[in-house]
Amino acid sequence: MKIMVAIKRVVDYAVKIRIKSDKSGVDTTNVKMSMNPFCEIALEEALRIKEAGLASEVVAVSMGPTQCVDTLRTGLAMGADRGIHVDAPSPLYPLMVAKLLKALVHLEKPGLLILGKQAIDDDCNQTGQMVAALLNWPQGTFASKLVLDKEKNSATVDREVDGGLETLSLDLPAVITTDLRLNQPRYATLPNIMKAKSKPIKKMSLAELNVELRSDLEVVQVTAPPVRKAGVILSSVDELVDKLKNEAHVI
Amino acid sequence: MENHKLAAAIAYRLLNQTKHSSNKIIHQRLLIPNFTQLNPLSSTSVAYLFALIQFVGFTRHYASVPLKRFLASYRWDLQKSSLIRMQSISAIHHRKFGSVASAVVQRNPNFSTINNDDLIYFEKILGAKKVIQDHEELETANTDWMHKYKGSSKLMLQPENTRELSQILEYCNSRRLAIVPQGGNTGLVGGSVPVFDEVIISTRRMNNIISFDQVSGVLVCEAGCILENLISFLDKKGFIMPLDLGAKGSCQIGGNISTNAGGLRLVRYGSLHGTVLGLEAVLANGSVIDMLGTLRKDNTGYDLKHLFIGSEGSLGIITKVSILTPPKLSSVNIAFLACEDYISCQKLLFQAKRRLGEILSAFEFLDSQAMNLVLHHLDGVRNPLPSSIYNFYVLIETTGSKESNDKATLEAFLLHAMESGLVSDGALAQDFSQASSFWHIREGIPEALMKAGAVYKYDLSLPVEKMYDLVEEIRTRVGTAANVVGYGHLGDGNLHLNVSAPQYDDAILSQIEPFVYEWTSRHRGSISAEHGLGLMKAEKIYYSKSSETVQLMASIKKLLDPNGILNPYKVIPSSLDVHMKSQPTICKLPWSTF
């Protein structure tokens, strides 16, 4: 069985981001970019399944400008077998990504498609669900535990939902999106980095996949949340009551 | 009730009349429970008994010494109506940590003790808020980070600016009150805490950033600024501090400079002697020496700031600092590598300096014992190379301006190292969180050692080829009694040798000292690479410096601090300290010249 993992190149989660002066988006020049943490967890899960002998190959896919290849290389260094880079201009919104993934799935025919539950730059949490609908495949989102059953060709997924944990059984092929507690991603070790240099990354264009770039979304403005005002130390209860009444209009 | 009070008064009078025989002994107060609350009758009888014994002892001059000492060790506290036992201990160490080689220090009788007039004066200068006598705050300030040294100071002052500090020092000098300058209190050689009852002068309120020049990168700030705060401030401006150490959350820049702290980035940015452009310091007599230049080059006269850098507060208190900060470069990469033996680590260093060249910013090593300790005692730490146990681990960090170039250079270097067998395995951090987890392993070793029990800590500069030989020799000497751990800044030739034992034990200590100092001295190393001498190594300076050099140091100390009030008993051996012996006045008689 082949496993396909979708990974996204985002601003490193530890970076303090700044908004561009024209409010059109986040300033990404000269800022460290790395793989989306949830995508790392997705890739780690795929590698574990492969190491357990339940899958034959792990294919990492990424969409975007040429720098995505760096992120794919990291994925290969972690242990993926092949990479596919879809050359597309950014920004790519979830529906577009879902359509591209659908085309890739028809091409590669994997038994399992694993993604991160959301990307940390847009926090959409939509791609996994959309692609499952487009493919008409069952979906197990916010997975915190994944167990595959080869004979029954199904997967048991523990989902982290608001009420607690929900356990689902899905027939394969299926779409899984990963949550934080699923696993802890491995480090890219030197022998694997060495091997990754010889692993192929196939480049594909939008035309080859027969997908048209069309977006129904437009980012109008990006602003930073208002700066928290400093607290004021008051000297007496009367002053507090006065401020609550006259300034905050709470009482 | 009246009887009891009378008895108490008599007891107090008689007991307190006996002059305590010597000023030199340190007191440790053990408060005996307040008898009066329990049983008035018994306390009365006790008071009577004591009054009687004291009377006997008073009149009978020939009372035996043990009896005298026994009686003299009790005091009646009139306020609390309870007996206080004054216990004299001749050793200074708190945790029954006796160093076989260390001399027993005695309180210098020339120093005064604080009285009420002093307190009134300090409160007038500083205000009541900055004069600390609270027991709990003093407890913390009296104890060092390792809980190895504890003083008995009764007073802490927290001046807010140079003028206040200058006034305090002038007064203390005139009154001959010994003082200890204290910053973040993270020192590891007992240099930041009082030995006896020295007044603690804390710089923690002097924490303003005065100015920052965006073009040249020169930062001017007060000595009490915490290093991590400076790092965050500079981060927003696109610069970094030239030094970085594990204690950054608590240590203050004044303390870093007065101890000439090294840290993790010395291999790239050099020592503080190079990066500090200017200082403002206050001498013992209160005079303010303004050497706060911000110029990169200034060859006008003797460069006196270098005297204060590394003097550990014994020549003057640093109040303001002007430091050159390097620009923050965007591409930081870090690799965690495993080596089979120490020779490979050395060869790796040689290769790294050549192939990584200008982008190398840190080169640290740790042995397998250190790794096991960290994995065992710290939470949230995982081994980046779990597949096998390796003998040595090396952490290499590169900092450069172009991500793609640096990553390619580092990868090429690492691949070459693997192919030539220098490195058995390694991991490359892919993002910031992985990078900080690598650093956490290396920076967490001191903390893990503290959690493991008692630790004997040594900080030595040695030729790189010989460094690990010492660790192995100590390991053979100590045997199974303790865990010997070696780690350090391999890039600077600095070994942190730590012996971890379940408890402090003189038998273990005798196997380590003075062997470790003699070995270092024989190989022309330094017995204190970056931690300083403080109290722990004050007598050991001769292992690394000649006696003429030390004599010159003593002369400089006498010149800048004639009364010896600044951080006494530390840095320079006490036998040299001319203030310890009283100078006889020589009367020049007319015929003595013949």
TrEMBL record, chain A:
The keyword Transport applies. Coiled coil: none annotated. The keyword Mitochondrion applies. PROSITE patterns: ETF_BETA (PS01065). Keywords: Electron transport, Mitochondrion, Transport. Residues 23-213 form the Electron transfer flavoprotein alpha/beta-subunit N-terminal domain. Belongs to the ETF beta-subunit/FixA family. SMART domains: ETF. It comes from the Eukaryota. GO terms for biological process: amino acid catabolic process; fatty acid beta-oxidation using acyl-CoA dehydrogenase. It comes from Ambrosia artemisiifolia (Common ragweed). Its main location: mitochondrion. One of its GO terms (molecular function) is electron transfer activity. One of its GO terms (cellular component) is mitochondrial matrix. It is found in: Mitochondrion matrix. The electron transfer flavoprotein serves as a specific electron acceptor for several dehydrogenases, including five acyl-CoA dehydrogenases, glutaryl-CoA and sarcosine dehydrogenase. It transfers the electrons to the main mitochondrial respiratory chain via ETF-ubiquinone oxidoreductase (ETF dehydrogenase). Heterodimer of an alpha and a beta subunit. This is Electron transfer flavoprotein subunit beta. InterPro entries: ET-Flavoprotein_bsu_CS, ETF_a/b_N, ETF_b, ETF_beta_N, Rossmann-like_a/b/a_fold.
TrEMBL record, chain B:
Pfam families: FAD-oxidase_C (PF02913), FAD_binding_4 (PF01565). Its EC number is 1.1.99.39. GO terms for molecular function: (R)-2-hydroxyglutarate dehydrogenase activity; FAD binding. GO terms for cellular component: mitochondrion. Keywords: FAD, Flavoprotein, Oxidoreductase. Gene3D superfamilies: 3.30.465.10, 3.30.70.2190, 3.30.70.2740, Uridine Diphospho-n-acetylenolpyruvylglucosamine Reductase, domain 2, Vanillyl-alcohol Oxidase, Chain A, domain 4. It catalyses: (R)-2-hydroxyglutarate + A = 2-oxoglutarate + AH2. It comes from the Eukaryota. Its cofactor is FAD. SUPFAM superfamilies: FAD-binding/transporter-associated domain-like (SSF56176), FAD-linked oxidases, C-terminal domain (SSF55103). Residues 149-328 form the FAD-binding PCMH-type domain. Belongs to the FAD-binding oxidoreductase/transferase type 4 family. This is D-2-hydroxyglutarate dehydrogenase. It comes from Ambrosia artemisiifolia (Common ragweed). The lineage of its organism: Eukaryota, Viridiplantae, Streptophyta, Embryophyta, Tracheophyta.
